[in-house]
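Thread: Histidine kinase, structure

OP (GT): Posting the sequence first so everyone is looking at the same thing. Length is 371 residues per the record. Can we get the structure tokens written out before standup tomorrow? I want them in the notebook alongside the other entries.
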Amino acid sequence: MFKQLPIRFIYLLLIGIGLGLILGFKSYIPFAYWNEEYSWARYALPNIINYSVWPFFVPIIYFVLGTFPFKESSTYKLIIILSSLVIAFTHEAITNVIFFGLLDLADWYPFTDEVWMQIKGNFLSAMITRLAEYWIIYGLLAAYDFYKKYQIKAIELAQLETKLTNARLNALKMQLQPHFLFNTLNTISSLMEINVKSAQKTISKLGDLLRTILTSEPKQMITIMEELDYIKSYLDIEQTRFHDRLQVDYQVDEKAKSAMVPTMILQPLVENAVKHGFSKISGEGVIIIAAKILDEAMLEIFVRDDGRGSALNSEKLRQKGIGLRNVEERLNQLYNGDYQFTITTSINSGFEVKIRLPLKYYHEKDTHTGY
């Protein structure tokens, strides 16, 4: 418990003793000025004991804060309030025992029935002071906890931005890799002799694809339709290159069109479908890209091909496939485990990757970078 504190315990203890000395001296100054015959210890000692005992309760308060965060639920509020009363009561009881016990041992102020009545008479007002001190400490710890969570979120956001940048660079790298460009340029060259319009169309699609990668705003989330605009440019080129042996079936529900998905989340999946599924067969092939709403709460998207499939199980495919692993890592960071990522495949039965995400629609305020 002590290791989790925002400040080392020894420093808390020194701060407590320092506050006790300062406030004790402050209380003693008026009586010293008026030449009252009261010892300095009578005013300094209670403060020193009070603020020296608090560091031992700080870990408990921090534990309560972490275990029962202050939420709107009345149960949480009741727990926090009860803990403040218990800690304030216990603190005041301990400080009285130490203070009057020391006075009695030193024969400065014998513990008598009159002293006991004095303790009981002052206990309620002292309790109010202890409660005020408790909430000051609780507020400071809550502020630190909020700051720490803010820092964690900022780091996570920075990591997401880095992953998004990497995803964009990887996409650019994959699309600009020599074999892709050479194959596309060879296709254009062949078409120029037999079908100039198709060649011009392919050049236009290649330009659109590169423009999308290089000039699009780097947002974390975009709509399904924005994602598919990029995918379609890529697949149009591949369809031309494979002389229309490749068929693409887009199955997007009307309600799903404005649903939000992580940017370029489908690109590695479609790339795998072409590279490992369709390009390995000699006949025609079909890639299905689908999106639909489940129970008005979840978005389901999947990429499926009817290629050769794989004999590896889901876990090995995740480890072996860099694209699959990167997709799942991004999903985990964005949704903190609140998603489903499943792979279904077998030999000669195609390959399917299905993703289920919490449903979120487009809003103007969500358009900023790092959404």
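GT: Both are above now. Quick notes for whoever picks this up: The beta strands are 221-223, 246-252, 260-262, 285-294, 298-305, 340-345, 351-358. Residues 364-371 have pLDDT under 50 and may be disordered.
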